Amino acid sequence: MNISTVTTGTAAAPAPAAKTEATNALGQDAFLKILVTQMKHQDPMEPLKDTEFIGQMAQFTSLEQLTNLNKTMTQFVSNQGTSSLADYAHLIGTSVKWESETESGEGIVKALSSKNGELLAELEGSDVKVPIESIQRIEKQTAAIIDQEIV
Fold first, then answer.
1. pTM for the whole thing?
2. I need a surface site. Which of 27, 81, 110, 135 has the fewest CB within 10 A?
3. For residues 101 and 114, is the Cβ–Cβ distance under 8 A?
4. What was the pLDDT predicted at 12?
C-alpha cells in the first residue's frame, strides 16, 4: 500500500514560549531528582557511600550560593552606573559654567531634574536646563555674592 503525505500552503503556527528562562539551569528540585534516580539505579553490591552524597550536596549548595552572589554583584554594578538626583544635590546653590555643541553660559544651579533618564541642572533667572554632562566648571558661592542676592 502506497501512502503519500499531502502538504498545504499554510504552516501550523508555532506554540508560544511559556518561559524565557534558560533550559540548562539546574535547580534544587532537578538536583534532588537526579540524586534519587542515582540512588534507585545504583549497584546493590557496591552502593555509593553516604559521604559521596553529602559531598555532592555540598558542591551543589556552594554552586548555588556562588550563582546568587553573582546575580547580586551584577545588580550592584549595574546600579553603580546609573546616576540619581541625590548624587548631584551638592550642585544646588553653586555657580556653574557649561558648554554644549551649540551654546554655552554660566549661572547658579537652583534645582535638578531628570527627563528621559538624563539629569539636568536648572539655572536661576532663566528657563535654561543644562545637561549635567555639559558642565565644565563648578564654583562655590562666596559670601559677598550670596549677600548681594539677598538684598
1. 0.41
2. 81
3. no
4. 44
